[in-house]
């Protein structure tokens, strides 16, 4: 078993990122109330948005959701943007989602933006690449560039594809206590900024 754990120490470059707790096991909901100036936009290719209740993604009720169903092959996207603040490279970004149990062929692409310009992306095609929250999933990545928006693109590759989205999430990595020489120390969440890279775990 190869397990890659990332330990990072980051400086904070945005006032908004200070609202994120350090080294949590799952991402902090990126929603109104905890964060300001958030907006959500959605698209369905050449069609008008076919997501339901998209503002649920940014309201402060973390149980609220938006969802969409694609019949056949197609792509739909959802993007949350902070119109005022930039966020630092090295933070973890993603979405809390749920997928229909029958969905086995799909593609999820995460993208970050800064001032409307795409910065980076990550593609995921299997449920084993998602963080299982026991009733939902978290899909995410660690950024290498500053950002102010997180987009989720969902592509159905089968007959029918459904996805439910709760909210975007953000995680901040902070330095832990200094290590003691010649002493075994557990690298765990809350104490240290740890992250399991599933692409390098097997």
Largest sheet: 6 strands, antiparallel
Return the structural class. Answer: mainly beta
How many DSSP helices? 0
- Supply Rg: 17 Å
Q: Summarize the helix and strand pattern as letters.
A: EEEEEEEEEEE
Task: Pick out the low-confidence regions.
Answer: 1-13
* Helical residues, percent: under 10%
Task: Give the CA-CA distance, first to last residue.
Answer: 6 Å
Mean pLDDT: 83
Q: Given the C-alpha coordinates, what overall shape results?
A: globular
**Share of residues in strands:** 35-45%
Give the tally of β-strands.
11
Task: Give a description of the structure.
With 202 residues, the chain is mainly β. Helices cover 0% and strands 38% of the residues. The chain has no helices and eleven strands. The protein has strands at residues 28-29, 38-43, 66-71, 74-82, 92-99, 106-114, 117-124, 131-132, 137-142, 149-156, 160-171. Strands 1, 3, 5, 8, 9 and 11 form a six-stranded antiparallel β-sheet that branches. A hairpin with a 4-residue loop joins strand 8 (131-132) and strand 9 (137-142). It is globular. Mean pLDDT is 83; it is low at 1-13.
Produce a short descriptive summary:
The protein is mainly β. It is 0% helix and 38% strand.
Quick tags:
mainly beta, six-stranded antiparallel sheet, 0% helix, 38% strand, globular
């Amino acid at each position: 078993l190869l397990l890659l754990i990332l330990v990072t120490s980051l400086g904070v470059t945005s006032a908004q990122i200070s609202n994120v707790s350090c080294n949590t096991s799952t991402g902090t909901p990126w929603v109104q109330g905890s964060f300001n100036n958030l907006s959500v936009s959605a698209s369905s290719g050449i069609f008008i948005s076919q997501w339901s209740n998209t503002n649920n993604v940014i309201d402060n009720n973390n149980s609220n959701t938006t969802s969409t169903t694609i019949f056949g092959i197609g792509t739909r996207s959802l993007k949350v943007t902070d119109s005022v603040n930039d966020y630092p490279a090295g933070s973890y970004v993603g979405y809390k989602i749920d997928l229909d149990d029958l969905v086995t062929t799909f593609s999820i692409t995460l993208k970050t933006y800064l001032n409307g310009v795409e910065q980076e992306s990550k593609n995921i095609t299997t449920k084993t690449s998602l963080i299982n929250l026991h009733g939902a999933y978290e899909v995410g990545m660690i950024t290498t560039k500053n950002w102010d928006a997180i987009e989720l693109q969902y592509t159905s590759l089968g007959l029918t594809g459904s996805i439910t989205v709760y909210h975007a999430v953000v995680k901040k990595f902070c330095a832990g206590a200094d290590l003691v020489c010649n002493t075994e120390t557990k690298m765990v969440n809350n104490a240290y900024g740890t992250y399991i890279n599933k692409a390098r775990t097997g």
